[in-house]
Amino acid sequence: MPPDIELFSLSVGGVSEPRADWTAAAREHVKTALAQRTRTLGLAADFFDERQADEFAEPIGLQNAVASAIWVHHAGQRTLPLPTKHEQLDWSLGDSARPIAQQTGHRYGLFVFMRDSYASAERKAAMIGLALFGVGALMTGSQVGYASLVDLESGQVVWFNPLVRMTGDLREIDSATETVAELLGNLPVAP
């Protein structure tokens, strides 16, 4: 699926301001890194373009909702574990993803979600000024995201990997490549 990526600049006051130029660059870098990584793993992969993604907006939106629930209840924040899940990755999109499998001929869909933020020049200057007065540091930014592998025929989420860190820069190809390697580090690959 097309990677769902958005990059932000953190203002002096900590407000996240979307940056379209950074986001466009990051999307291209991540697509390139995903293509390289899947080739390295010996996987055949096709990438949906925006038109195809629009055609399947409903199952993609459902996957986003399910992935958000996995994030909260199972893998990412784990703030509200569900006792009925017994720590198992037992989540499904039902049969909503089956039309994607039927049209593409692919069995699995990889969904990637990333949000990345960076301190603006003004915020960096404020951080230096505050440090001179012994005031604690402001947050410089963060990288948050996940990769989710879905069996398109059954709708079952078969793998989910969260990523939360204070490093990485999707605006640069080398760093984006490292981020994708980290995100897909334990991706199950059939022999």
Describe the overall structure.
It is a single chain. The model has no long low-confidence stretch (mean pLDDT 83). With 191 residues, the protein is an alpha+beta fold. The protein is 39% helix and 21% strand. It is built from six helices and five strands. It is globular, with a radius of gyration of 18 Å. A hairpin with a 5-residue loop joins strand 4 and strand 5.
List the defining traits of the structure above.
191 residues, alpha+beta, 5-stranded mixed β-sheet
Fold blueprint:
Elements: E1 4-10, E2 16-18, H1 20-40, H2 50-55, H3 57-73, H4 98-104, E3 108-119, H5 121-132, E4 143-151, E5 157-165, H6 173-183
Helix pairs in contact: 1-6
Poorly predicted runs:
none
- What spatial order of strands do you see in the largest sheet? 2-1-3-4-5
Structural class, from helix and strand content? alpha+beta
Strand content: 15-25%
Order of helices and strands: EEHHHHEHEEH
| Number of strand segments | 5
How much is the radius of gyration in Å? 18 Å
Q: Mean of the pLDDT scores? A: 83
Number of helices: 6
Measured distance between first and last alpha carbons: 23 Å
Note the overall shape: globular
The proportion of residues forming helix, as a percent range, comes to 25-40%
Counted up, domains total 1
Largest sheet: number of strands, sense, barrel closure: 5 strands, mixed
